[in-house]
Structure formats: structure tokens, C-alpha cells
Amino acid sequence: MDENDLRRRARRTGFNVATLEKDYALTWLLSGIYWEDSKLRDILIFKGGTAIRKIYFPEWRLSEDMDFTIMQEVDPSELKQGFEQVFSSINKKSSIIYSFTSFNAGEHAIFADVQFLGPIGFKNKIAHDISLKEKMIEKPTRIKVKPEYEDIPEFEVLVYSPNEIMVEKLRSILQRGKARDYYDVWRLMKEKEFNPDKIRELFILKCQITGIEFNPELIFDENRLSEAKKFWTIALARLTKNLPDFESVVNDLRLMLDFIKVK
After folding, report:
1. d(CA 160, CA 197)
2. Which of 62, 100, 180, 219 is the least buried, fewest Cβ under 10 Å from its Cβ?
3. Nearest to 26 by CA among 55, 4, 56, 5
């Protein structure tokens, strides 16, 4: 896909061409991670908001980063080398050049920025958050993905279940309360029928194993809501064509999440 193709797609979809190029580069990278010859395909489990769009709901908001959990213990240098091999493999099949601008391994996570030079010709980057010690409560699954971009080959991804993604998003609200977490929970509840008792049970378990207090009232804590509202348009308007009003989303969530309240 060249620059003209991207610009035509941007006009057709209504997204900014730079935002769309990042989504294109992100999709190539995700595909390469799970190719048959990739050393990462059995190590990294895909999760988060980007997994919602790329795997479960194609009409979801666009994303600008990728989140993974490590399936097994691995040396950070080996992981970095695995990514660099993926970069090389993708470059042979596309016009995109990838490289690390940062790769920081901590005790609990690796935070990395992958720079790419794509069809438009301007450097941009994709943030990666890789959890090293996250405990899952449901088994991940392998799902075949047919990318929305015709030149990207099909691949089979190892990904969190929708239930796990939902309770991860709820946990994230308790810990940080970002605008995109409120949006994703609201949209998940509208798009998919979850078992309320199951989600509540898994949410309690997720809080226990991550060492945080199960306090659903914090979801609607005024300080959290105020912070999320402040960044609602800034964080999400360029990533979705029909961004709902923040207050209406919160009002919906108060009803949607009533089942989570402490009994």
C-alpha cells in the first residue's frame, strides 16, 4: 500500500492520514509477530484496546499502541532480538522500516517504543507495554485474523478472551481511570452480552491476584471522572468517527455496571 492508497482510504473513512498510517504499520507489526517463523508467536499474548479492534470488533476505535503479556519467562535481550527479526521479515514484504527508539526492561514490565517509517515518509512510533508477571484468569485463545488491509497476510494471534479484556479494563479504571478505559468498557457492554455474575466473579479475582482493593465505587469517583473527561476529546476524537458525549457514557455505565456493586 503506497501513500496514494492511504490517502484515498483516509478520505473514505474520515480518519487523519497519519493516524491511519499508524494503524496500518501497527497491523503489519502485529501480523509479523504471529507469523509461523516468528520467535514471538508462542511467547506474547495480545491484549488491551487494540486487541478489541484487531481481533474481536473491527469497527472499534483505532489504537496507537500495543499491549502484551509474556506467556513464559524470557530474557529481555532475546525478546528484543525476536522483535528485530520480525522487523526485518516485515520490511522484506512491505515498504515499512521498523526500529527501536527505546527498550526499557523493568521487574514487572517492558516499555518500548518502535519507530516506523511508512508510505507517507514521516517517522512515527508505536508504544509497546509488555507485562512480565501478569496472572491471567482465563486461558488465552488462538484466533485467525484477516486484516482489513489487503496487502497484509492472514495470521493466527494468541489473545486474551473478551472476559479477560473486560475485567482488565475495569481493573485499569480502578488504578488509573483513563478516558479510553471508560470508552472501551462502555462499548464492550453495548457490543457484547456478558454474563454479569461471571464478570463480577472474575473482576473480584483479578483484584485479588493483582493486590488491589475491590471497590467498584471508585469507577465513578469524581476525581477519576474529572480526569477522564478532561482528556475525553483529546484522547479519543481522532480515533473514532462518532465519539459519544462523556456524560452520556458515564450515565450508561452507571446502569450497565450496577451488577458489580458490593452486595
Report:
1. 19
2. 100
3. 55
